[in-house]
Amino acid sequence: MRALVVGRWQPFHNGHLTIIKEIANDVDEIIIGVGSAQKSHTLNDPFTAGERIMMIIKTLKKFGFPYYVIPIRDIDFNALWVSYVESLTPPFDLIYTGNALVRELFEERGYVVKKPKLYNRKEYSGTEIRRRILNNEEWKHLVPGEVVEVIDEIDGENRIKRLSKKDYLI
Amino acid sequence: MRALVVGRWQPFHNGHLTIIKEIANDVDEIIIGVGSAQKSHTLNDPFTAGERIMMIIKTLKKFGFPYYVIPIRDIDFNALWVSYVESLTPPFDLIYTGNALVRELFEERGYVVKKPKLYNRKEYSGTEIRRRILNNEEWKHLVPGEVVEVIDEIDGENRIKRLSKKDYLI
Amino acid sequence: MRALVVGRWQPFHNGHLTIIKEIANDVDEIIIGVGSAQKSHTLNDPFTAGERIMMIIKTLKKFGFPYYVIPIRDIDFNALWVSYVESLTPPFDLIYTGNALVRELFEERGYVVKKPKLYNRKEYSGTEIRRRILNNEEWKHLVPGEVVEVIDEIDGENRIKRLSKKDYLI
Amino acid sequence: MRALVVGRWQPFHNGHLTIIKEIANDVDEIIIGVGSAQKSHTLNDPFTAGERIMMIIKTLKKFGFPYYVIPIRDIDFNALWVSYVESLTPPFDLIYTGNALVRELFEERGYVVKKPKLYNRKEYSGTEIRRRILNNEEWKHLVPGEVVEVIDEIDGENRIKRLSKKDYLI
Amino acid sequence: MRALVVGRWQPFHNGHLTIIKEIANDVDEIIIGVGSAQKSHTLNDPFTAGERIMMIIKTLKKFGFPYYVIPIRDIDFNALWVSYVESLTPPFDLIYTGNALVRELFEERGYVVKKPKLYNRKEYSGTEIRRRILNNEEWKHLVPGEVVEVIDEIDGENRIKRLSKKDYLI
Amino acid sequence: MRALVVGRWQPFHNGHLTIIKEIANDVDEIIIGVGSAQKSHTLNDPFTAGERIMMIIKTLKKFGFPYYVIPIRDIDFNALWVSYVESLTPPFDLIYTGNALVRELFEERGYVVKKPKLYNRKEYSGTEIRRRILNNEEWKHLVPGEVVEVIDEIDGENRIKRLSKKDYLI
After folding, report:
1. How far apart, in whole angstroms, are the C-alpha atoms of residue C112 and residue B10?
2. pLDDT at F118
3. Which ipTM was obtained for this model?
4. Cβ atoms within 10 Å, residue D11
5. How far apart are CA B146 and CA B149, in angstroms?
6. Which fold has domain E2-164?
7. Coil, strand, or helix at residue A136?
């Protein structure tokens, strides 16, 4: 059995890792979709798809389970989205999502959709982690060590801080 | 004389029907543009272009007047929009719209633009009808019977309710 | 039962009309997709979607059967095409096509695909009709009278002749 | 040395002109990018790219310095934007911008980014000028005379006023 | 009076220059559209829009007449093309083109279209110049000196030769 | 050191596998780009990106080396392509390609480009394998066993045969 889980992973954090590991117990292979792949360099979506893929693959390397990581860009045409995802991924049997739209689109196509269990949602949250980075608060304990390394390699903390500078409109 | 009227028809309701019938008295043929054709499965735009076309055609079948129903997607390039509409439709002589942008774009191209008369705007309103569906209030008397049938066939009430579920972000 | 038939209708001719009328005998409603809707003003695709829609609707007006005419643009992403068509049209039960790709895409999605019977393929052919227009040969007996009227209204014969002029490259 | 400066120029005003003239003192050639080129006919972006280009070229004609004016549409893919700009313009050595995102994208690619000095930001502001046009207040002293001429030629004051009319939704 | 002339200018050569100078005698301002702006790095279209703009502007600097240079990308939707060009350029009164499609599209919109006079078409031809570059034959006398400089600056001769290398498919 | 190799992998065959294994000896990590990701269901590009990714990942599972598989769609804008690839992948140090255009684009951006060594090019070729499938000749010994399994699972042999059927144009 193969399952799909789609997220933005901005960045990939310990809550994500726990979810992925639990799904890995239930299925044979996981397809990890990297959503909004075309987005980067904003406060909400600071990391490119390539950077997010690197975070995920470096983190999961040490766990033995089989998985695929696939970037998926937004197409702004909801009625095509399921077909779009299907064309980019191996066939899958069920989807894990907490997003009402994704659930609706897949259920209308006859897929089984499950809700992943969340842990410590207040801290294990991309929004919270980006907020902490911006405010020089502790954040590194909320993500896997490999994600810290990737963010360091691309100077991600400073990217977020620079992007938050007030514009100076000409 | 041929007239164009563009709306989103989310869903097609009795106010729409009254407008269409009045325009039908004034012109030989009506072109009904289904705007934002690429949108569906959101609370604001729950129905696909195909579903909306079906509502309109089933409703108008019993009236004898000639009309065309054409899906028109957003192109996010206002200066091209009039040409885009012209390329998809038979030639037309005047436009009925209450939208300031549509009026401006067509008037700059030399078209005659008229305002349709509205009836009972508080209830005959897509926003109001979607709100009632969401809140389990009466709505079926606000739309033609054929629209009720289409919404039933596609399980539209539940689609809207499911799309309103709070997200559960991973 | 509702059937879909997709063509380019460049222009709509007597062979097309015979096919549509035969399908109308077999099903309750026909959806006529106007393919390559974004194309016009070339020797292969001289007429806009709007012009082709006008040809079809004017021709079919006198027959009583119910139908929909929907423009469908090319999306150059075969794996999305079936979903794209589904989003723009009412639900349908079977497809009539002689195109191998369209057949494959719909059959992989579980649709029933039928081949329409063709009549006098040598003359009832868009290619042949465009060739005759270009060479000042007889063509008007190959299309319905309403199509002659539309082509006259838009000065279509001269459009085709002008488009065939040799380029004079700067 | 060649410098790039990107703005929306909705419309081109005296503050813009001062900045351009100062940059012209520092470099050999200026490339003036007309951003959001696809936008027009909204209250925030009333003028087409063609109209904005005309404002700039007519204004700068009397100054002797060499420059290029290039329309640049939004591509909604930040990681591609620098390459996109590079493909449309002559090579440049530095960028003038006050926008945090533009700064970040170009600095990550190794470009030198400078902040232009602003003058009288409260009045020399596109937002303020559009607000004044809408409210029938004095605005013509805030833009070069050539810009007044262009806005008059296209009846720009009335376009803005008409676009602000309340919608009358069908 | 303002005239539009659209070409690909791959590269800008002496035949182009003669045409532009003759048009400059007849009109007040010339708009030079750089067509297929998105294309580059192929044997048919080796130069980016930015490189072609640089060729044109450097060459025309020494002639006193006023002109605009505007990149125009292909949109593969003929019925929108005139509006697209209009949105990117100042208003114009006539078009110079030898291309049958461009002539047809503009004439259908009511524009006056003229044919530029060509000189020495066998040698003053982009195709011929690219062929000579590829085969190490003389070509520099066929283009303005400024174009030679631009092609040298970007190492254009070698780009063309490298692009012609036989593929070695994996 | 990380290397990028881009191919269409229609299908992934023994020649591809040999190349990948050799590159794996030279670098720490390989990024395998799946080019023309949007294409499928044609005789030249029969398999979807998802199907090709499955072929690659299933085949490489038994070799220990680290790699990424990333779908990359065509963007028809050569000057953006390097940035596009960079945005979707982890950073890389060199590229393996035999394609002249890919080589040129990456070398102009300062990348090191290498040619992979090819083996038995006549038989280890996607074109040859697709030809054999179409003609009922032996082909399974030319691809890894896992690829045979994927093609069987999706009924790929019959898809290719069905796509080759002569069209029967309406």
Report:
1. 31
2. 86
3. 0.90
4. 25
5. 5
6. Rossmann fold (3.40.50)
7. coil
Residues of E whose CB is below 8 A from B86:
79
Locate F140 and state its tokens. 């399974």
Tokens found for residue E117: 């006079």
**Contacts for A4 with CB less than 8 Å, ≥ 6 apart:** A30, A31, A33, A85, A89, A92, A94, A95, A96
- Contact between chains at F169 and C99 (C-beta distance less than 8 A): yes
Interface contact C86-A79, CB threshold 8 A: yes
Decide if A28 contacts A2 (C-beta within 8 A): yes
Specify whether the CB–CB gap between A7 and A33 falls below 8 A.
Answer: yes
Contact flag E98-C168 (C-beta cutoff 8 Å): yes
pTM value is 0.94
DSSP state of E136: T
A33: its two tokens: 């979709």
Q: pLDDT for B103-118, tens place per residue?
A: 999 999 999 999 998 8
Vertex D94 angle, CA D92 and D100, to 5° = 125
Alpha helices, DSSP H, located in E61-170:
78-88, 100-108, 126-134, 145-153, 156-163
- What residues of chain D, 2 to 41, have a C-beta less than 8 Å from chain F? none
Note the Cα C151 to chain centre separation in Å: 15
Contact yes or no for F88 and A48 at CB 8 A: yes
Would you kindly state where each structural domain of chain A is located, as residue ranges? 2-164
CA distances from C156 to B88, C40, D99, E108 (A): 17, 11, 51, 11
D65-89 tens-digit pLDDT: 999 999 999 999 999 999 999 999 9
Q: Which two tokens stand for residue A86?
A: 């299907």
B in contact with C (at least 3 C-beta pairs within 8 A): yes
Is B129 within 8 Å of B151 (Cβ atoms)?
no
